[in-house]
Amino acid sequence: MLERLTHLEENIVSLKELQSKISLDNIKNNKFDEWALRYGIFESIQIIIDISCHIAAKYNLGTSKSYVECIEKLQKFDYISKTLSKSLISAIGLRNMLIHEYVRIDLEQLYSFLDFIDDFSAFGIAIKELV
Asked: SS3 string of 62-79?
């Protein structure tokens, strides 16, 4: 799991770099930039899910029936804050839309999600010693 956490940290750096170099107009007009954003966010969220479910199982926090429940268990047992939990649960919703394409993704909303990258960092800091 430490390798997954390192990968998340690398993704955060790349997403922040993407945010500083590419505008919303780039995302709207360049499919490769859009794909980079989509995949970077998706992969980061998936890593958070994997680590969360691993920690929930490792520390016997109870059986989780969904990815959201893994995050909720970390919050319930004070591994992460309630505010961070809400943000990560929201990210899982975005991940589900990205992977299953329930609806067409609003590129403005997707781009604005870069403002929440610090929550990914906060997650890494909160659980670093647990993995």
From this structure: CCCCCHHHHHHHHHHCCC
Please give the distance of CA 6 from its chain centroid, rounded to a whole number.
14
Which CATH number covers residue 107?
1.20.120.580
pLDDT, position 65: 94
For 58-86, how does the pLDDT look when each residue is reduced to its tens digit (9 = 90+)? Answer: 999 999 999 999 999 999 999 999 999 99
Q: What is the CA radius of gyration of the chain?
A: 15
CA 82 from centre of chain: 16
Type and span of the H or E element at 113? none
pTM confidence score: 0.93
User: Residue 102 pLDDT > 90, yes or no?
Assistant: no
Domain span holding position 18: 2-130
Number of separate domains in the chain: 1
- Separation between Cα atoms, residue 97 and residue 131, nearest integer Å: 28
